[in-house]
Amino acid sequence: MSLVRAENLSKTYRIGDIDVPAIKGVDFAIEPASFVCFVGPSGSGKSTLLNMIGCLDHPSGGSLKVLDTDIATLDRRAAARFRGENIGFVFQDFNLIPVLTAYENIEYPLIMVQEWPAEKRRKQVLRLLEAVGMADQADKRPDQISGGQKQRVAVARALVSNAKLVLADEPTANLDHDTAYRIIELMRKMRDEFGTTFVFSTHDAKIMGEAELTFVLEDGRIPDGAGKGESPHV
Amino acid sequence: MSNLLKIAARNLLRYRRRTLLTSLLIVIGMVAVLLFISVSGSFKNIMIGQFTDSILGHLEVHRKGYVAAIDALPLNLNMQPNATAKVEEALKQIKEVENWSPRLKFGAMFSTFVETTSIRINGIDPQREAATLPLLAGRISPKPKAGPLLGKGEILVPALLASGMKVKVGDTVVLVTTNRDGSVNGKTFIVRGIMEGLSGPGGRDGYVHIDDARELLRIRDAEVSEYVIRLKDMARLDAVSKELKQALGGLTDKEGRPLLEVHTWADLSPFANIARMIDVLTLFIKIMLVAIVLVSVMNVMIMAVYERIREIGTISAIGTSPGKILSLFLCEGLMLGVAGTLVGTVVSMILIYALNVWKISFIFGQQQTVVLSPSLALGQVAAVAGTVIAVAAIASLQPAWKASRMDPITALRHV
Ligand SMILES: Nc1ncnc2c1ncn2[C@@H]1O[C@H](COP(=O)(O)OP(=O)(O)OP(=O)(O)O)[C@@H](O)[C@H]1O
Ligand SMILES: [Mg+2]
To answer: In angstroms, what separates the C-alpha of B15 from chain A's closest C-alpha?
Structure first.
């Protein structure tokens, strides 16, 4: 069973009277515990596609199933709940909550999205701080740590409530090369450790080489269908 | 819940100066309102006390038409024995009545053997009058020692008249009056004391013993112009007034209309309107406070939402429910209101305490200084604080709602 399955998926934005087709009928499948990358030039539709997979946006046509749920059927509230339970996000600009410490940022979904008991919560947060190598920076606020460290905290936040799928739209675009590489490494290590599927997008050729499965988007289409790369370990 | 409060508090502290300014505005508004309420309330109570406790009592009973014609002091509108018996019986029955005093009022000529002028006189029973009007003795100089306010053959002369006629305590004066039948009578009195004037009805009257008044007017019966009544609890004024009206309602004239009238102090004193004005002013000041809190909290919350659009997009994307986002921002506005309210209440208490220590006084009447003693009832503080907090919540409702409805993609893309 695929974790994500898209069939003839399309998305058209409407600006005034003009239709802007951003995704023009794509088919793909993503298996559990895979490490997937979408690449393509600017404007090719990477963000649009990731937003739909992340239940942030509705498709205009075709079907998109995430964890066997047809995401077109979810309303605002249901989509929010679905994201909270199943999907983690890592953003290009880190998007940590500035008034909370690293520890509290990771803890946030366990309090505000799910309601975990305090002791279980503490164990989980410490485990993730450890896993992303930020245990010694737990009490620092986002403005007191580097970009790479922020993104580590963000990865931990995305994983903390045991998401089955983590989406990262250009997670390395604001990082220097070495740091970017280390974040991708961290994500892959997390995939190995937690069995979580990671889907990210990038421009960076060196970064995309790290993916096990790569889909190339070109003007809203995936020309060669299946995607390149070794199939994920099953 | 505690986490909501923690995040809200940190966000408020993030913009320390803005939070401080807004809270300061709420504090100032709160202090202004509480000070106004306590000072004006104290002023009002003192003023009302001056009237009710030295001249008017809480309630008065007259024969119908007497109050309308009170400037003429009409002898033919006095209550006759059948009515006075009924009134006194009714007053004994009502247990909220603390004391009452009958008065026989008349106009007379006042002569020092050198000069003559007109005067208004209250014939009183000194014991009853003193018991009904506890502040009356304080208006007499020299201060009466233990014993009645005045004895038979003695008169209390109003201060303005005393100074105009150069009358001193111990002088002999003559009162001359015409009775209801038109016959003239006179009687000499020793000046027992000078009565400080008080603006308002009855504030410039002279006082003699009621027996002397009856003798002068050649009245043998228990005829009375007015009854002055003091209640145990002024808050029961309206209820007692109603009860008394009912008790006296049976007494009618030939045409079947009620013979007697009951008036409250407020019906008789023009100060009641000033007291009402003070209440209206208080209301206006409260409305201003509401406006200040509403505008300042709304302003801060609109800014807060606008500045944190991407943050809202983030927490929304990771699954925070719209309801939680709403409460997050509501909490912030509420906290602002609560903080302002707490500080405002404490500052007000301190200032009111200081006012009581400094003893703000003002001159009232001729010589009497009255010291303000501002105080606040717990209920008043609670009402103002509750209003401020509720308004803060209402003011943050719209921005918080807007935040909770934001589309995560649009919000995340916001620069
Ligand atoms: N909200 C929108 N309204 C209208 N058109 C949009 C909107 N979002 C994206 N588009 C259009 O859809 C197309 C795909 O955009 P998208 O952001 O998905 O590309 P991308 O591959 O993520 O590009 P980049 O690498 O620059 O981030 C573009 O032509 C873009 O102009
Ligand atoms: Mg993009």
So the answer is: 11
3-state DSSP assignment of residue B350: helix
pTM: 0.81
Rounded Cα–Cα distance for residues B225 and A1 (Å): 104
Mean pLDDT of B201-224: 89
C-alpha of residue A9 to centroid of ligand 2, in Å = 18
Q: Rounded to whole angstroms, how far apart are CA atoms A107 and A156? A: 9
Residue A84 lies in a domain: yes
The answer to which of A120-124, B44-48, B118-122, B166-170 has the lowest mean pLDDT is: B44-48
ipTM: 0.93
State residue A233's pLDDT score. 41
Q: What chain B residue is nearest to A112 in terms of C-alpha separation?
A: B320
Tell me the residue range of the domain where B137 lies.
Answer: 65-258
Q: Are B408 and B316 contacting, i.e. CB atoms less than 8 angstroms apart?
A: yes
Total of domains in chain A: 1
Tokens of B84: 């006075």
Look at strands B206-209 and B116-124 and give their pairing: parallel
User: Number of CB pairs < 8 Å for A and B?
Assistant: 67
Pocket of ligand 1 (CB under 6 A): A 13, 15, 20, 22, 40, 42-48
pLDDT in tens, B13-55: 988 999 999 999 999 999 999 999 999 988 888 888 888 998 8
Give the number of residues written for chain A. 234
* Number of structural domains found in chain B: 2
User: Would A233 be classed as within a structural domain?
Assistant: no
Partners of A93 on chain B (C-beta within 8 Å) are 310
Cα gap A44→A40, rounded to integer Å: 6
User: Residue B24, Cβ neighbours under 10 Å: how many?
Assistant: 14
* C-alpha to C-alpha distances, B33 to B43, B273, B349, nearest whole angstrom: 15, 21, 12
Q: Which residues of B are less than 8 Å from A89 in CB distance?
A: 314, 317-318
pLDDT digits (tens, 9 = 90+) for B277-288: 999 999 999 999
Q: Establish if A234 belongs to a structural domain.
A: no
Residue of chain A whose alpha carbon sits nearest to that of B316 = A80
CATH number at residue A61: 3.40.50.300
Which residues on A lie below 8 Å from B324 (Cβ)?
A: 112-113
Query: Which of A112, A115, A160 to probe by mutation at the B interface, max B CB count within 10 Å?
Result: A112
In a domain, B55, yes or no: no
How much is the mean pLDDT over chain B? 91
Tokens of B5: 């409060």
Binning pLDDT at 50, 70 and 90, where does residue B319 land?
A: very high
- Is the pLDDT assigned to residue B117 strictly greater than 60? yes
Q: Has residue B122 got a pLDDT over 60? A: yes
CB A109 within 8 A of CB A160: yes
Residue A91 lies in a domain: yes
d(CA A187, CA A200): 10
State whether residue A150 sits within 8 Å of chain B by CB.
Answer: no
The token pair at A125 is 């947060």
Whether B70 is in a domain gets the answer yes
Question: Given ligand 1 and candidates A38, A48, A215, which is best to mutate, with the most ligand atoms within 8 Å of its CB?
Answer: A48
H helices then E strands: how many in chain B?
13, 12
B320/chain A closest Cα distance in angstroms: 5
Contacts of A21 (CB under 8 A, 6+ apart): A10, A11, A12, A220
Give the H or E element holding residue A170.
Answer: none
Q: At residue B260, what are phi and psi to the nearest 5 degrees? A: -115, 160
Residue A234's pLDDT is what? 36
